[in-house]
Amino acid sequence: MMHNAIEIRNLTKNYKGFSLGPLDFTIPKGCMVGYIGENGAGKSTTLKAILGLIHADSGEIKIFGKSMNEHEPELMNKIGVVFDAINLPTDMKVQEVGTFCKLAFTTWEENTFGDYLKRFSLPNDKKVKALSRGMKMKLSLSIALSHQAELLILDEATSGLDPVVRDEILDILLDFLQDENHTVLISSHILSDLEKAADYIAFLHHGKLLFMEEKDLLVERYALCSLDDETIGHLDPEAIVGRRKHAFGQDLLVIRNLMPKSIKLTNASIEDIMVYIIKGVESESVAL
Amino acid sequence: MKALLYKDLVSSKSTYLLLLIMVGVIAGIAITQGAMIIIPFIFAYIPMILGAISFGYESQSEFPKFVFTTPISRTTYVKSKYCFSVLFGMMAFISGLAVFGMEYGSLDFALIMAATSFAVPIIFVALQIPFVFEYGVEKEGIIMVATYAVLFITIRLVGKHLNRMMDLVRAMNRINSYLISAAIVAGAICILVVSIHMSCVIVKRKEY
């Protein structure tokens, strides 16, 4: 039995001025992976490569143990995709979108789609162009969840949505994950959302994967502290991951285990970890 | 395929309705003015216009990005773009047979003109679609203008030299008109197949 939803080996993609990879990572079934990184880090490029929307220069991508190139239509029934835009002709009505999907997906469940439309209060007779951004995302999610998908891929799907809608979407993703065969890969700039829901965090920076770790371990490993320059001078340099200087000293992201017990540490959020690591990498002062 | 054709129909219903009205008006004028020859050639314009509409809407919403995350393959997507041209090619053939048959009373001539009417939309769309896939909908205008110009000149030439063409057909009476018509249709189909293949190669290579 296949235990991985996605396996990526040596994936590379080169553009003028940007290179992705080589990327190697595996996403086990039954978990939610938050794919994070700054703008232009290569998150969307990775997701598009997984979906076959762009062609990798090298490497191998397997979904549920099968190569996308050889099993594309069959695999697409198992993958639900939500992009940051809905990408449907704007003159189509919600009901017509349902009919289109019924004809496109062999595993389409009309009743499930209808239930989601009711749950999200999406009117059948409204045109796509008349929907708000939040409603468009809900329609997109309804499609993704109505064809027996086992893997959901969301690319910045929650960006630009208000906290209530984002929370509603996160609840649905958590519901989806109740089935142990279901997996979610979500890229987002809103790291607080991932903090609530993700099991793993994969961190991409300048096209390279800096780490992919369990979120809880990540939060356990790193901590924040604010110290004066003299105290910092006595610390193990390996303990300091990133720093932000201010008039009274420095705010540090540190590795908790390498810090003296006497120093008061506070918990670091995923956002703190991302920001400090990027700054650390950019100042070449960090060895992860 | 059905999904894509359904999408094309529902996403631009009002445009299609407008197009239908325009075709009706042109056909009405053609009949009342005794210029029925125009009718088969109207069917040459329609698939080009429908293609332009479909590509325009898709480009606006980046539809391929959505469709290629469904089980619809790139090959099916490409083939769907040619469906209307084949349909209208057949309509052009039938109307060509009727119009030229009634107007000139010669089945041989009508058959050849019907085959030509079938071939014209097929060939134009066969040129248009790979061009749009390769260069994008923004540059579609170039190929549209070029094909419209060629089509216009063709209609003018056919109209001007109709009698001479009839003489030519009579002169070729020894050659079976069925064979000539079949050759024209077969030639158009060959061009269509090559065009579909080219479009498939382009779309498979493209990134979305």
Protein described:
The mean pLDDT of chain A is 90. The longest helix of chain A is centred in the middle third of the chain and has 14 residues, at 163-176. Helices cover 34% and strands 30% of the residues of chain A. By secondary structure, chain A is α/β, with parallel strands linked by helices. Chain B has helices spanning 2-11, 13-32, 38-61, 63-67, 74-104, 107-135, 140-160, 162-171, 177-205. Chain B has nine helices and no strands. Chain B starts with a helix and ends with a helix. By secondary structure, chain B is mostly helical. Helix content of chain B is 86%, strand content 0%. Chains A and B meet through helix 2 and helix 3 of A and helix 1, helix 3 and helix 4 of B.
What is the element string of chain B, with H for helices and E for strands? HHHHHHHHH
CATH architecture call of the largest domain in chain A:
3-Layer(aba) Sandwich
Number of DSSP helices of chain B?
9
- Range of strand content of chain A: 25-35%
Number of E-type strands of chain A: 14
Question: Biggest sheet of chain B: strands, sense, closure?
Answer: none
How much of the sequence of chain B is in beta strands? under 5%
Q: Low-confidence parts of chain B, pLDDT < 50 over ≥5 residues?
A: none
Features:
heterodimer; A: 288 residues; 6-stranded mixed beta sheet; 4-stranded antiparallel beta sheet; 10 helices; B: mainly alpha
Protein topology:
The complex is a heterodimer of chains A (288) and B (208).
Chain A: E1 4-15, E2 18-28, E3 32-36, H1 43-51, E4 58-63, E5 66-67, H2 68-76, E6 79-82, H3 94-104, H4 110-119, H5 133-144, E7 151-155, H6 163-176, E8 183-187, H7 191-197, E9 200-205, E10 208-214, H8 215-221, E11 222-227, H9 229-233, E12 240-246, E13 249-255, E14 266-267, H10 270-282
Parallel strand pairs in A: 3-8, 3-9, 6-7, 7-8
Antiparallel strand pairs in A: 1-2, 1-4, 4-5, 9-10, 11-13, 11-14, 12-13
Chain B: H1 2-11, H2 13-32, H3 38-61, H4 63-67, H5 74-104, H6 107-135, H7 140-160, H8 162-171, H9 177-205
